[in-house]
Specification:
The chain has about 400 residues and is an all-alpha fold. It contains 19 helices and no strands. About 80% of the residues lie in helices and about 0% in strands. Helix 7 packs across helix 18, helix 15 runs antiparallel to helix 16 and helix 18 packs antiparallel against helix 19. The longest helix is centred in the middle third of the chain and has 32 residues.
């Protein structure tokens, strides 16, 4: 079992771990970013309806949500490094299924496998950083990790688009295969973490803490206050993040903007994301997590509530950039809060449960917009998502703003 290691920040150097720790996030982000825009199109080519194509495209998120707990158990069993390797191999296999899909079941399985691999990859990389970065630099490390994945998902669609000029839709999948293969190689080269297995072996079995599946319920009970406060907060944050790719294009289309303009504005908003993740990490490390957590959800919540009031291009761009700032400074906050709250003896299992809350919010956000739009109006659906930002700000504020970063 790998246990938490306490490094002094004065003894820590970013250089040796920068490529091995953050490189896989960029590469894996490129792989996922390359295929996201084309999954639904691939389904349409295989004679799926518009509704079914949307469901198949959503299987990545569903796969992540359903596999967070199995991902935690797998990572606990094989360790962080081999979990990253396994996730990369599994992702490549799923991508090849998509490339050679001759029917919808093959495509569906390949897409769902991407969600499964993402669940393992995201949890294992979080646990890896938790063990190699000192607490004083933890928020910066997770912010860089979150930002590096954003860079990957920003670059991926452009590389996929270039490949599609020569290979049509399959070009995007081949870009993803190449990026996932590079991820596999880099993860394989990551050095194994130091362990305390020998010390653990000396502890009588009856005195060792429960791990794996049998530890999940005790963790839920023991950490119920954390899950009902910070857990609900990150669930709301997940809903805010996942709703942006739905809310902005739909409202822009409602305003009558052209597809080219919509893509340009969304690209501007995504670009803003990548400007603020490191300063946000510095603030969290120096002054406390709440000084980023609360403003991020407030900015996004207010942006959603103001979006239905926009009727001109300039105001729409302003709200989109406003939303991008809130999303950008939140990079790494979910992983940081989870790492802070994780009990020492059951870190991996706790992080698996923690990610269930985040991914549940990411799944629920777009579904809530769709439901309220069908029952009421598009503006009502978008504004309601904004209310979750206010709830998250209240939850984060009452639990985080009174605390300063302290070594656990």
């Amino acid at each position: 079992m790998i246990t938490r290691m306490h490094f002094k920040s004065s003894e820590f150097s970013w250089g040796p771990i920068f490529v091995t720790a953050f490189g896989p996030s960029i590469l894996f982000g490129i792989a996922q970013g390359a295929i996201l825009p084309v999954i639904a199109l691939s389904a349409l080519q295989l004679q799926a309806s518009y509704a079914l194509s949307g469901v198949i495209a959503a299987l990545i998120g569903i796969g992540v949500l359903l596999n967070n707990i199995p991902a935690a158990l797998f990572t606990r069993h094989v360790g962080e490094r081999w979990a990253l390797v396994g996730a990369s191999v599994f992702s490549i296999c799923g991508l090849l299924l998509c490339v050679f899909a001759r029917n919808l079941p093959m495509l569906t399985l390949g897409v769902f496998m991407q969600g499964m691999s993402m669940a393992v990859f995201n949890l294992a990389r979080q646990a890896y950083i938790l063990h190699i970065v000192p607490f004083a630099l933890r928020a910066r490390a997770f912010s860089i990790m979150g930002g590096s994945q954003r860079v990957g998902t920003f670059v991926g669609p452009f590389l996929g688009a270039a490949a599609m000029y020569m290979l049509e839709l399959k070009g995007a999948y081949w870009v993803a295969v190449a990026a996932a293969t590079a991820t596999l190689i880099l993860c394989y080269l990551i050095p194994d973490l130091p362990t305390e297995a020998r010390q653990q072996a000396e502890i009588p079995a009856q005195q060792r803490p429960a791990t794996g599946l049998r530890s999940l319920w005790p963790i839920l009970v023991a950490q119920r206050r954390v899950f009902m406060t910070l857990g609900l907060g990150v669930m709301c944050l997940g809903a805010l993040r996942a709703s942006r790719p739905i809310a902005l294009p739909l409202w822009a289309e409602h305003m009558g903007l052209s597809p080219t303009t919509i893509a340009f504005v969304f690209g501007l908003s995504a670009a803003v994301d990548m400007l603020f993740f490191y300063p946000a990490g510095v603030i969290m490390d120096k002054y406390g997590r709440g000084w980023i957590a609360v403003p991020s959800v407030l900015l996004m919540g207010l942006a959603y509530m103001l979006l239905p009031l926009t009727g001109q291009l300039i105001s729409f761009i302003g709200i989109a950039l406003f939303m991008g700032v809130g999303n950008g400074i939140s990079a790494g906050i979910v992983m940081t809060l989870g790492a802070d709250a994780a009990p020492k003896d059951n870190e991996i299992e706790f992080l698996g449960l923690w990610r269930v809350f985040t991914d549940a919010g990411q799944t629920a956000g777009p579904l809530l917009i769709s439901l309220l739009t069908a029952l009421l109006t598009l503006g009502t659906g978008i504004a309601t998502i904004g209310l979750s930002g206010l709830l998250a700000a209240w939850l984060f504020g009452r639990t985080l703003l009174t605390k300063k970063p302290e070594t656990p």
